[in-house]
Design brief:
Shape of chain B: globular
Number of helices of chain B: 0
Strand order of the largest sheet of chain A: 5-2-4-7-10-13-16
Distance between the termini of chain A: 70 Å
Structural class of chain A: mainly beta
Number of strands of chain A: 17
Number of strands of chain B: 15
Number of helices of chain A: 0
Strand content of chain A: 35-45%
Number of domains of chain B: 1
Shape of chain A: globular
Largest interface: A-B, 33 and 33 residues
Oligomer: heterodimer
Order of helices and strands of chain A: EEEEEEEEEEEEEEEEE
Radius of gyration of chain A: 17 Å
Largest sheet of chain A: 7 strands, parallel
Distance between the termini of chain B: 35 Å
Radius of gyration of chain B: 12 Å
């Protein structure tokens, strides 16, 4: 008779907000929210609100009607809807972002495509002189 | 190492579709469609219809399940819904309410 194999389970303590990884094949339509760090390699259509670091990898897509909320954000993929972070927002060279950026620090690498407003307390570099930070 | 992990603090309300393995430690409400293995770990809460390859449940699952492979309800699992699978195990200590359809 077949017997169920014992499967080793990883102990997960209460309140242990482990990292979340959504691989390239994953598509989510809906709202993603909660605690912990989130890495998106696939696509999300909907709102995102996380307390930890949000990492949108190169090739990933997040389409949202409202700004993505995160503790901090590093974007290498395509984001529509803007980003609002308590900490730093970083757009890498492969990123394509449409929407407003808000964070304690905002950095945009050369090669990034960005359309929107920047809302941050810092001195804007000369090449962003056309956009007014706050 | 599973490629997709929905961490313990995370809630997804909507539809999740994936080609490869999914490990759920957090909460999913809506629809969960995996082509490969789906693991609903202890502490996870899934209120969704689940389509999967092999499915193992140690957490709470409310919704109908359809698997083209096996379904293992492990000790501590709490499942309310109908299960359609080619093979199923219900471990001692698993709670289950629903119908089983093994396509016989």
């Amino acid at each position: 008779m077949a017997q169920a194999k014992t499967i080793t389970k990883r102990a997960l303590g209460p309140g242990d907000a482990g990292p979340t990884v959504l691989s390239a094949s994953v598509r989510i339509r809906g709202r993603l929210s909660g605690e912990g760090d989130v890495t998106v390699e696939g696509s999300i259509e909907g709102a995102v609100s996380v307390s930890g670091e949000l990492f949108v990898a190169e090739g990933a897509t997040v389409l949202s009607a409202e700004a993505l909320e995160a503790g901090s954000a590093t974007i290498g993929g395509h984001v529509e809807g803007g980003i609002s972070a308590g900490g730093a927002v970083h757009l890498t060279a492969s990123s394509r972002v449409r929407g407003d950026l808000k964070g304690s620090e905002v950095s945009i690498e050369e090669g990034a495509e960005f359309a929107g407003r920047i809302d941050a307390i810092f001195d804007l570099p000369a090449e962003l002189g056309g956009v007014r930070g706050r | 190492m599973a490629s997709t992990v929905i961490g313990a603090g995370i809630t997804i309300e909507g539809e999740v579709v994936a080609e490869d393995e999914i490990v759920v430690q957090g909460t999913v409400r809506g629809k969960l469609h995996g082509k490969d293995r789906v693991s609903i770990e202890a502490g996870a809460v899934v209120e969704a219809d689940v389509v999967a390859g092999p499915l193992q449940v140690a957490g709470s699952l409310t919704g109908n399940v359809s698997s083209h492979d096996r379904v293992d309800l492990q000790p501590g699992a709490r499942v309310i819904g109908n299960v359609k699978a080619t093979r199923i195990t219900i471990a001692d200590g698993a709670q289950f309410k629903g119908n089983v359809d093994m396509d016989v």
